[in-house]
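Regression report. Comparing outputs from two consecutive submissions.

Submission 1:
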Amino acid sequence: MITGGSVQAADKKVAKVALGGAHSAAIATDGSLWMWGSNESGALGNGKKGNDLCEGTPIKVLDNVVSVSLSTGSTYDAHSGAVTRDGSLYMWGCNSSGQLGDGTTTDQLKPKKVLTGVSQVVLGHRKTAAIKTDGSLWVCGSNENNGLGANGNQKKFVKILDDVVQVDFGSSHGAALKRDGSIWMWGNDTNGQLCGINGSPKKLEGMTDVKQISLGHNHSGALKTDGSLWMWGDNGDGQLGDNRSERNVRTPKKIMTGVRQFSLGQWASGIVKTDGSLWMCGYNYYIRFSEYAPKKLADGAALVELGDTHNAMIKTDGSLWTWGGGWRGQLGDGVVNLAYGHNVKNPAKISIGGTPKTDSSSSGKGTTTVGAGLKKAVPKKNSTFTISNITYKVTRSDAKKGTVTLLKGNKKKTSVAIPATVKKNGYAFKVTQISGKAFYKHTKLKKVTLGKNINSIGANAFRGCTSLTAVSLNGALVTIGDYAFSGCKKLTKLVIPAKVKTIGKEAFSKDSRLKTIQIKSTVLKKVGKKALSGIHKKATIKVPSKKLKVYQKLLKKKGQASSVKIKK
């Protein structure tokens, strides 16, 4: 058994994959278990934990593994579990609700053997289920909303059912598939995900000949032996794939035929058909995926798995592909970007334990280098990308000295701190400019802080930001463009930094409450026409003492009232 080693070997084919809230795992065909993503709670099993201790590429954790599962939900209470060939169940990570099943609430940073005679493990949020080789189902952890199916919280495994071949958890409900093809469910039925069942495990009447089950956040699904896929429960985001016929579907509904395998995520569903085509429906916030009916994404799929934020596909050749939200490294593509996010819209191939190699077939949109710590290709000049709903444009494409301009802000934000740098494909880019109209008429915006690398604010950048009350400009700023802050009628004070050389025409026009302006710059050379038109009639402009006479002349007749004072 190996725990937490950074082992690299020949590139491995993948047999199984598991996704949690923000961490991931894969079992290679040789039985080795590899993990990556968030390690805030020690869920990667490498003996460490911490909010910033994420792994962007797979690390080897165990050998001889036949089953693995990861918890959904928050990163601070995440846990993991794996079953080895000899039937041993190993658990690690957060144990706040007794979800590790060792009789304690002590966290474990490395895999700990807690049970024997196990064939399969499945995890939910702060809960664990183990199917033993005799078909008995055992559970432990939190029983919030009766989601565990037991009588209260359990620090040790307790038996709840027999003759079980599969089990799964949603956010507040659970389900088990028995050998006879029947489904047994328990928990909370708020959205119809239990078809009227509440509390302890009960048989779901009318569903027979089932060969696979899967549960999402608040929706449920079953695949029958004839290849028909049935789903029910929450349909608010189109996750049932029926064009959102109802908000909540309270009886199983036939969605599709010719299905081989499926997986339900937080608000989405993934489906693999018998021809190997991969389909998805529902919603993923991180990549702005929103479809009310299944949409084809790829071919050659053998298996799909959905987590809370991200998705994975194993292809028929044993290769692993991931997409979705990946800021904590959960995509396994070598990128960890805790500050600014990392999202991948299209499935991209990643490497498990192999020598990094280039693969350009992931989406037809450029070269992707993956595995063993390498990142994707450097974004090209003039290409754009979005982080936290803010769009950036590459102005210099360079692995070490790249720069971007902030092209478009988020109109819903009330406060914006423009970063000094952002990352794309693992490369850091300095944010050096704010483009023209980047925040034009963002009427909800109240506060702006510029990152330390901003040297230019474009024309009309903050024009019409009628709620803007506070602006913090940085020391690198050189140019303030035409109409840059025009119409910011709630702005009361402003400090012009030491390196500013140019203030454009009407830069602060119609800022009727702007009463205090401090100019720290001693290199100001140009102030445009009507730059100060309409500022407060009793405004005071403070300038460096050695520049008093020069700036009194430079600022004369720039649209301000004669009562405005310019002093040192």
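Submission 2:
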Amino acid sequence: MTKFLSLLGLLTATSVFAQLTVKQDGSSESYIYVTDQVLYVADDISVTKDAGATNENAKAGIYLRDDAQLIQGASQSTSNQGTGFISVYQDSNSDSYDYNFWSAPVASADASNNFSLVSQVFNPGDSNITAASSTYTGSWNGSGESGISYTNRASLSISTAWLYKFNEATNSWAYLGNSGTVAPGYGFTMKGTNVTTGGTYNVDTNNQYYEFRGRANSGDIVVNLSSTEGNVTLAGNPYPSALDLTAFFNDADNDGVSAIMYWDEDRTVNSHYYVDNKGGYGTWIPGPDGLGQYTVPTFMNYDNNGNATTSNGSYGEDVARRYAPIGQGLMLKRNGNGSGTATGNSTATFKNEHRVYVKEGASSVFRNPENDNRSLTRFHVIFDDYSHYRDMILNYHERATLGFDRGSDAPHPMDGGQKEAYFNIQDDGNEQGQKNLVIQSVPFDMNMSIPIAFKLNQQGRVRIKAAEELNVPYYRVLLLDTQDNMRYPINGQSISIGDMVTAQLTLPAGTYENRFFIVFEDAPEEDPGHPDTRSAIADAFDFVQDNRAKQLEVANPEMHKVDEVNIYDMSGKLVYYAYGLGSASRYSFPTYNFADGVYMVRLVTENDGVVSYKMSVMNR
């Protein structure tokens, strides 16, 4: 429902405005209140509060609530004006130990047009339109109230210790503090509030809500990119609406960006010490079809100099990232020629035409649709005894080339510390030097071979598996070792009987860039079939899909060591995975975000014992 208490300007029956003005006179209430829908304004907005009113108590503005968003027209002719504000909420899903990357959807109403933390971040008040000013503490832990409630709210105290922005010119962090400002389009870091604990799969139950109040950002917003290939700019969605990253990335003005990176971290770790935490950057690009592709980060420990060291097998959340929600901060990676020289425009521009009305978490757009017609293989390269792994995607597309294709190929973060895996392309003859990729697109041919490289600082075991196969054009995919001409099968042919294959080899320390290749085989004239590798160990596990609790429960009374659990939908798409689970009497795996339907669970124990289970999920 949209509630208009006072609206001055032109309003049509189709909710399209030529210009929108909201003005408070004295202590009167004069505001627009929007819930659960889009407010579209073709041109500029002017919101003015009474001279004696503060932002906390002014009842003059535009209030966006319950997934409401504001979009302004691509042809907006003048900037937004006025001393009033729009108000929009965003939640943190983090506690005092966890970083989030933010980008403000509003700016100050003064001439600077910058975002100010101390004057524009509020604690939602005891009604839908009032707010309380946030406070700041030098303590390492901020405090507030989890969830959103309009009665007896605790005060919001933000820790200044973790407020930073990033200087793309020097490739270094800059302390922001509560007194600093951030220009529109740029991002900043902030940790959440309170200290929470939870089980392995249910962490950070604290969810602080922040209220942003200020002049709505709109129109073209320009940020600077680094002058060095591979360096980053901390930017973000600058608007009070969702942002279509495919539209942003494919805009000709933004050809200086080679990939978009999302920070994620292990939220089970409750420590402020740098060497204790684990985190990393996931990589997003539009992909050859523009639907968006994302590889999750490998969570690494870091030493006091910021160098990645080791990991414990944890990894980032596997979600689609095409539509950046309100307040989302992200890193823009600089494009280049593979030899260190930056290419493309030196700035990136956010535009109103990149804005879309997409509710945060909407399954139809934030996750891949069931009728996904892309053709790809998702590889997981697993090191040692599941110490960590690298998520990689190989696309098969007729418009791709064997060289670097911006938007279809993604540069590798190369943050795997002591051991790493990556696709490697050499000079393609078009002034493109060597590039290490985490996502690669190729024009498929059954006889082609795709270089895959490994880097190890000490001897170790390497496993590679086809974790996901969508509409693949081959019968088998294998790892070719050109040193002895051995071919190691990577994929199986039927998830229903648990015969997925993982190639395994042990390598001495070194860098292997011209030895290993991904190769393919067509189906034989007669399919010899594959043996059912299920073992008697299957009787040792009990599976229960608890639709009430929205989770899969697995009992392991004999305490077998579980190496991995994979859950597939009935099309064969991998929808959940967990590695290195160890020996426990019981495991729980979340299914709250699964669509209703039948799924196949594949559990792998030590020594490659395989257990399969078919479950039905009903989340309605």
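Expected: both submissions complete independently.
Actual: both completed, but the second showed a warning that disappeared on reload.
Relevant detail on submission 2: Residues 245-250 form the longest helix (6 residues).
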